[in-house]
Design goal:
With 419 residues, the chain is mostly helical. The chain has a single domain, classed as Amino acid/polyamine transporter I. The protein is 74% helix and 0% strand. The chain is globular. It starts with 12 loop residues before the first helix and ends in a 6-residue tail after the last helix. This is Amino acid/polyamine/organocation transporter, APC superfamily.
Length: 419
């Protein structure tokens, strides 16, 4: 059978919006409101508000670039247009080096929610996380059309239940919970913003799926527009109720949402939210795995990775070799997390720092090549804001810098990969 050389074009704007919401609205909404409230107190709401505002020019720039260059390489493609192949390769490696940490962390947060129902040990939680990751790989293996339909249903249910959770927590909100507003000063607000970048990663994933949209020039910007409005509204609502109820003072940040709903509706509703926690963490895992597999496919197609990764499944038209390659990486990180009892916060900070650099590179590239003034302005603003937030990454700035240096040295002194 002749090898299929193109990805199947089947994504609609509704499916695109669901995939984008699923990529962004994941474990961050379950765990980060409590973590950032612990860090900055009620002033953490400023962090959420500012990150939501900062995301707007980035979404505008990504939407413009994705519709202008509908290519599976996403950010790496934008960088290639502005700075050439070497810079594109570095961008791709930065994204992929964050992947082994970001996906298992998200799966572990969801597994903690499920484990809260059944009182699972660390073993059960890590096995559930592994099952979530392997399920996402399996569904993506079968094709993006099935994935898109599944994501529409799951995201609709999540939006409904999260709205229900917020409304249920409203009676617990007290005015005194917002004072003192700045208990630790302004520096923790900036540090919280760096951590919150994990909750606002995912907009760029739609770029990796751009080749598979039926009408990318029309549907990509529409998908992103719908997603950014819904995501920001829910983030602010959940953060506000978390601070206003004061639940973050005494509860495990990973299971705060369960406690919020159980205040009013008891253990049954808490169980429902715990199940939701597992499902909501599946959504970003699903979309990110789809996006990362397309990135590997595009990098292999461009000659940066072995050619075998550019092969598509003859029936499902998916980058199946890339998808199968992810499984052992994720399982290795989960095994290390289990054996070493890793804390989730640093594991969140590593991909956040990497993606901040990726966004800076991508947005500077967009600023250089976009012809319209709105797109240029949005891109340069996003690059500047990403750089400011990156300054709060502390020691985690060393990880992406080390990756850049390593890739540069390898490309200078020997071929990066054997063809």
């Amino acid at each position: 059978m002749q090898q299929q050389v193109e990805l199947k074009k089947s994504i609609t704007w509704v499916q695109g919006a669901a995939l984008t919401i699923g990529a962004v609205l994941g474990s961050g909404i379950l765990v980060l409101p409590a973590i950032t409230a612990e860090m900055a107190g009620p002033a953490s709401l400023i962090s959420w508000l500012l990150m939501g505002l900062f995301s707007l020019p980035m979404v505008i720039a990504i939407g413009t670039m994705s519709s202008r260059f509908p290519d599976s390489g996403g950010m790496a493609t934008y960088v290639r247009q502005a700075f050439g192949e070497n810079a594109s390769q570095i961008t791709g490696i930065l994204m992929l080096s964050a992947m082994p940490f970001g996906m298992p962390v998200t799966a572990l947060v969801g597994a903690h929610y499920l484990g809260s129902i059944f009182a699972w040990s660390s073993t059960g939680i890590h096995l559930a996380a592994a099952g979530l990751l392997l399920t996402a790989i399996g569904l993506n293996y079968r094709g993006i059309e099935l994935s898109g339909r599944t994501q529409v249903f799951v995201v609709s249910a999540i939006l409904f239940i999260l709205t229900f959770a917020v409304l249920s927590a409203v009676p617990q909100i007290q005015f005194q919970a917002f004072t003192p507003f700045l208990p630790h000063g302004w520096v923790p607000v900036g540090k919280a913003m760096m951590l919150l970048f994990f909750a606002f990663m995912g907009w760029e994933m739609i770029g990796h799926l751009a080749e598979e949209f039926r009408s990318p020039h029309r549907d990509l910007p529409l998908s992103l527009g719908v997603a950014v409005v819904l995501v920001n509204a829910l983030y602010l609502a959940v953060a506000f109720t978390t601070v206003g109820s004061g639940v973050y003072h005494a509860e495990n940040p990973v299971t705060v949402m369960v406690t919020l709903v159980a205040y009013r509706w008891g253990e049954i509703a808490g169980t429902l939210i715990a199940l939701l926690g597992f499902i909501v963490c599946y959504c970003p895992v699903h979309t990110f795995i789809a996006g990362f597999s397309r990135l590997v496919y595009a990098q292999a197609r461009d000659g940066h990775f072995p050619k075998r990764f550019s092969r598509l499944h003859p029936r499902f038209q998916t980058p199946h070799i890339s998808l199968l390659f992810f499984a052992p990486l994720y399982l290795l990180i989960l095994l290390l997390s289990y054996l070493l009892s890793w804390d989730l916060k640093p594991l969140i900070s590593i991909p956040s720092a990497n993606f901040l650099v990726v966004y800076m590179l991508g947005m500077v590239s967009a600023g250089r090549i976009l012809p319209d003034k709105l797109g240029k302005a949005a891109a340069w603003i996003s690059a500047l804001l990403s750089g400011i937030v990156f300054l709060f990454a502390g020691w985690f700035t060393l990880f992406p810098l080390a990756v850049i240096m390593l890739v540069y040295l390898l490309t200078q002194f020997r071929p990066f990969f054997a063809r």
